[in-house]
Amino acid sequence: MKGFSIHLSRKEWFLVYTICSGFLLLIYLVFIDIKIQQYIYNNRIVSFPLSVSSLTSYPILTVTESPNISALAAIVIDDDSKAVLFSKNPTLLFSMASTTKIMTALVALSYYKMGDVLTVHSDNVEGVTIGFTKGQRVLLKDLLYAMLLPSANDAALALAQNYPGGESAFVNKMNELARSFHLYNTHFGDAAGLLDDKDYTTPLDLVRLTSIALKNKIFSEVVATKQKIVSDVDGKNNYFINNLNKLLGIYGVNGVKTGYTDGAGQVLVTSKEEKGHTIITVVMASSDRFLDTRKLLSLISGNVNYLSIHP
User: Which candidate in 81, 88, 95, 101 is catalytic?
Assistant: First the structure.
């Protein structure tokens, strides 16, 4: 076989060199962009609204280990700085189950007053209920406790059905608030969190929503409550309720909300105090949400140094 050779002029060689160099540069830039995106998502850079002038310290996690958790996704943030201390698939979409009720509570608190009396319109409600019957009149305050402690779906539905325009208008307001909070990967289909294909979010969005919700004094007080007696306004029916969050009151945990459906798996949003700072954790699609959360809290406990920031 005869040899094969290419004869190019100096100008043609320069053109080939330029094209090849440009191609290699493009590949390199794409590689760098991918690495930057991975760094943003996996190395704790998160875009949160933050007033730098009010920030006096910044948290640094002193350990690099990754706890073995069953949850398919999780995130841990320091709420003051909004710094992410740990994350696992923080931007993937998952069904949120009853953690939907965090937004349900915010919409209710934005419209109703604590002394408002609401009427129960439906008593044939799917899933967990407290046992309200059609026609019962209940204070907003008691509906909030019923919804956020034992996660009663009949309480969530009552909040939505008494809203001007009914349940559909209430859910529209939930999605409107999500957009106003810049939770662009979050969507709500109902007020209780029963619709797995329509109630979805990411761990990052859910931790942002929780951060906002905890700024509401009424919300934070309710989710920190272990037990409560609620009743209708006539006082004929009393309900002794317990918070489903088994971690509440231990490890410094003071909230926030459980969630579960077959589609979503186990979901848990938790807040705790650590060295005077609020830590918020989210686990989604977990097979043991309380164990996973304990592992994350152990990761944080005693392993965060707060560096002073001087203006």
Answer: 101
The residue from 87, 98, 211, 271 that is catalytic is 98
Residue 9: burial class (beta carbons within 10 Å; 0-12, 13-18, 19+)? exposed
Told to judge if 151 belongs to the known catalytic residues of this protein, a careful annotator would answer yes
> What whole-number distance in Å separates Cα of residue 72 and Cα of residue 79?
22
The type of residue at 163 is: Y
* Rounded CA separation 301/20 (Å): 52
Catalytic-role residue among 81, 87, 95, 151: 151
H helix or E strand, kind and range, residue 268: strand 265-274
Question: What are the pLDDT digits (tens) for 147-195?
Answer: 999 999 999 999 999 999 999 999 999 999 999 999 999 999 999 999 9
**The tokens of 125 are what?**
């409600």
Look up 98 and say whether it is catalytic.
Answer: yes
Whether 110 sits among the annotated catalytic residues: the reply is: no
Report the C-alpha gap between 232 and 107 in whole angstroms: 22
Domains annotated on the chain, with CATH: 58-308 (3.40.710.10)
